[in-house]
Write a structure and sequence with these properties.
Largest sheet: 7 strands, mixed
Distance between the termini: 33 Å
CATH class: Alpha Beta
Number of strands: 7
Order of helices and strands: EHEHEHEHEHEHHEH
Helix content: 40-55%
Oligomer: single chain
Structural class: alpha/beta
Radius of gyration: 16 Å
Number of domains: 1
CATH topology: Spore Coat Polysaccharide Biosynthesis Protein SpsA, Chain A
Number of helices: 8
CATH superfamily: Spore Coat Polysaccharide Biosynthesis Protein SpsA, Chain A
CATH architecture: Alpha-Beta Complex
Length: 223
Amino acid sequence: MKVGVVIPAFNVGKRIEDVLLKVRRYIPNRCICVVDDGSTERNGNMIQKQHIHLIRHQKNNGKGEALKSGFRWILSDGFDGVLTLDGDGQHDGDAIPDFISTMERTSADIVLGIRRFKLREMPFDRICSNRLTSLFVSAMTKQWIPDSQTGYRLIKSDVLKHIALNTSHYETETELLIKAIRKGFSVSFCPIVVNYDNPISHIDRMKDTERFCKLIIQLIKEK
């Protein structure tokens, strides 16, 4: 299975270097794409010196737009699947073999990284918001999805070919998941450990909650 990696990044600073260091242990440089979503910090030279594909957005368009740019690259280069992870060091690149083996073992179309919802490992507000959104997604897809908001995923290219994504921010990952399940694509899960040491978060609780609610209403209407 030829897997490409898409890493959306916005003002992640030097953390992207540590992320790439781990990813490159398992994925060749030519199969890695960093999507710089309008960062004011510049790490482009470092990325390009490693012969890693770099896509730059002139302004910050949102994580969903960064993912869509990466997905277009994946499809144009003929990859069988795409693994997405964040550029801020939250996701451990050493889990990449686990994602691939889970997909091969289960023949799933999507493998979701599942975090452990424990107070010692995840902030309380994130536990609450993720549990609530996962309940909504589970109800809409009629199957239990324990962590619908995880950005650490392995997705077969066939899924991307059959789904039109209309959103632009953090809700894009939810949109993809719900639409994929509705079209009959299967989902499996891979346990992951997440690092929350990064104090900087680009999540806007009010705006992103509003966007999530609008997405849910729109998908209910489309059903």
